[in-house]
Amino acid sequence: MLRLAIIGTNWITERFVQAALEVKEFELSAVYSRDTARAKEFAAPFNSDAVCFDDLTEMAQSDAFDAVYIASPNSLHYSQSVLMLENGKHVICEKPVASNITQAEHMYQVAEQHNVVLFEAFKTEYLPNFALISEHLPQLGKLHKVSIHYCQYSSRYQRYLDGENPNTFNPDFSNGSIMDIGFYCVSSAVALFGEPESIKASAHLLESGVDAHGSAILTYPEFEVVICHSKVSDSVLPTELQGEAGVMHIPHISECDHVDIKLRGEEVMTYQVPQLENTMTYEASIFAQQIKRGQLCQQAKARALGVSRITTEIRRQTGVVFPSDS
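Structure tokens predicted for Gfo/Idh/MocA family oxidoreductase (326 residues):
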């Protein structure tokens, strides 16, 4: 049984721990929080004997765990991951794995130098129904246009409008639309098609310096992927793949519950396979497999680095600058 630690005690961390326990490969053995009482409160439902830390260096140097799930603010992913990797801990880090491509490349170098696994927690790629996209793509014939939409009004946007400075819209935390909502769009594109030949991006920036919403065109040899992302508006548009023989719809790309295909002159066909309610279970299982094999997944590494290169370039084109970029 792999001993799991967590950094961060929010809802997504709780969700991941539930998923990790569900795959029966992990036990929760350590929790970090700046508030030890909060760490103990979080651990109680899962393992009241879990070791609780309020010092990251002390945690990294302990032998209380084998692997750690990092769900801190984006700006802390790099430093916390490197600290854990250098101390021989396997790391699954919430997306995005780093603030920029320079950090991401260094993180994977450290992981390989210390013979430990670094894995970006992008769940969508590992969902059973996401695999149906590639499986049924040939039905569409020659592919020409792909549009990936993810626009969701942030519950923290009103706080920003009221004059507060929530992490969601704060460049100090390496945040904004492309690094949050938009990440699912970019990462799904790279998971399906690899890296594009060229990128053209635009965005509307808030006074804080991050993007509220934006678009990007990823150009491939014979087709293009248009990405639309927003944290200040909602959309009900599906992701759409257009081929010469028909079109494929995915209602919500990040959860990818099913795939609809409409071939020319035919009725809509829905493709769906059973999928667990806690969709983080699949990434937890893939993480465990890498640790047991003693080798990180090169395909996952390539996708993570590709996405980081793209989001770094999108930010360069749209003028979103983080402190970590200097």
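Residues 64 and 199 are 44 Å apart (CA to CA).
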